[in-house]
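Minutes, project check-in

Agenda point 3 was the complex the collaborators sent over. CS summarized: two entities, 668 residues total, and the question is how they sit relative to each other. Sequences were read into the notes so everyone works from the same version.
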Amino acid sequence: MSLSKTLSPDNKTFTIQIQGKFDFNLVQEFRSAYADIGAENPKVVIDLRDTEYMDSSALGMLLNMQKNLGSKVSSIAISNCRPQIKKILQISRFDKKFEID
Amino acid sequence: MHILVVDDQALNRTMLQYMLEVEGYQVSLAENGRVAIETFNQVKPDVVLLDVIMPEMDGFETAPELKKMSGDVHLPIIFITSLDDQKSMLRCLEVGGDDFLAKPFDKVILSAKIKAHGRNRELSIRILEQRNELKYHQNLMDREHKIVEHIFSNALNNNRYIKDILSHHLSPASMFNGDMLLANRSQLGSSYILLGDFTGHGLAAAVGALPTAQTFFNLTNRGMSVGDIAREINNQLINLLPDDMFCAAAIIELSNSGKAVSIWCGGMPDILVVNRNSGIKQRIQAQHMALGILDNDEFEHASINCEVQDTDSLILYTDGVTESENKAGEMFGQERLEGFYNEQPKAELVDVISCLDDFRGATEQADDISLVQINCLASPKPEAVSENSIPPLPWHISLDLSPDDIRNTDPVANILDMVSAFEGMEKHRSTLFLLLAEMYNNSVDHGLLKLDSAIKDAEDGFFEYYMQRQEKLEQLTEGSLTLNISYAPGIESIKLSVTDSGEGFDTSEIADIQNRTEQHGRGLKLILELGEKLEYQDQGRTIIVHYSVAQSKALDEIPDAETAEIE
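CS then shared the predicted structure for the full assembly.
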């Protein structure tokens, strides 16, 4: 379980990649990860390609992030979800609030 | 050395034989051309002394036949002649003669001439031997190249891609291409493309392609990010390649929807984003050094992400394209390439190639030339990996957990690792995790720690809640949890249950969960959606969820139920 963040060299995309398990154990790390997104209104990508597990606390963390960042970002996308993870997001109607790719 | 004397006069034959045998040569005799030819293959002479005028077959006729029979090895023929008119001597040379010996014979001159021509003969034999040896090595090398080529084409031709998305043109300058194109699709349906250019070309350059391809296919199958793929390949190459060899590369991932690309580019020419209607939209410069140069701790894996649309294409190319020269020594250059695309934004690769060919004219291709076009289209969902059916084996896993276990271990993830070891369970893994995690966390949080979910509703309550949870968990000394998970093959159903030693609660409270919109309760709603049945027993101390593995609504089919939007 780990979290890594990257600001793209053109400062336009801020990517947070979560490996393994996405749940409340990451609550602090996740919050501090998006504290420093740069000043250029980047797009935030939550890359879940390596995320195997996620529960409702992760959903809460995502919603909190959205509330927190608000207009500081151009958009927030959740990308590369595995099918079972995507299903959880769809059931929770997250497709109405995030770009899910 | 073996000398054949061909003369119709017995006296001449005897004299020559005598003179030569005194010098230590082996001598054979023939009285005319026909006999000489007939005995040639047994005698195998190194030098032939040949009379011109003989009955049956004269010297002029015999010489070309003997030369022919000698094949690739030079056979010196010295004409014995008393003729001194220019015309006859000229004819001797024309039919293949190498020298003349005048009658009467002079011992010293005869000996000198035999020696000189013997040397020529030996030289010719040596050259032939060397030629055969070269030929042997050439054959060996060809064979080995063919084997290597076979291995390469097997390693590099595993490419999987969608034809409408990827088109390419690869033109190596030698048998082995120092440029390399790899393509694969992940299980999520995104397309990966790697275009690489090793320093130099030919076999040496192509050697690095093998490990690169292996790593690429491995990691793309697992759906890794382009930055992580670049890092792994860099690691491989830094260990394998000599210091002066490296690989410029662009690694692209086009999402399943065709709307997003991420790019890691090191040491390659600018990637062009071309719109079919408006021309060049964007140039993406290499952000990094080529692969195989930097050590792992210096390596940068940051990638560039762009949004694209279905009328966009990415154009990737190696420097062989821009550095192609025409007769005047001018390079094709990036400007010319961009100009071409701005004039003809709908151009296909064949058009670019013919433009490049026109420019180059008759000038020979000096480097490998590779061009790749990636059309940013949505791709069909990847075919589902054939799923193992679940064998009709009933199983049951049960765990009793103390406060220490709850603090120090991760029982839900561990149970799921066990469960997914059962055949056919892998595809339910994340869903089962979610169900069990929700049940387990509710039991820990409310049953054992007596936390109030309403905390989450306050400003910043979400974090407050988890801070309190951690604090209370550290102080927990009493209580226990029991986790059960079992499979019933008859009804194709998995039963999950969690029992806590807490006080229980009024289970009628959760009846209207579907209509609630607070920060909490999200987990229960997910359980109701994903599970088949939810029940409480033992005054709420035990929660039981049934999950059907038969339901094929498993993946795509999301019910359009009017569930309240979760806030």
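Noted in discussion: The first strand of chain A starts at residue 2 and ends at 7.
Follow-up: revisit at the next meeting once the mutant set is ready.
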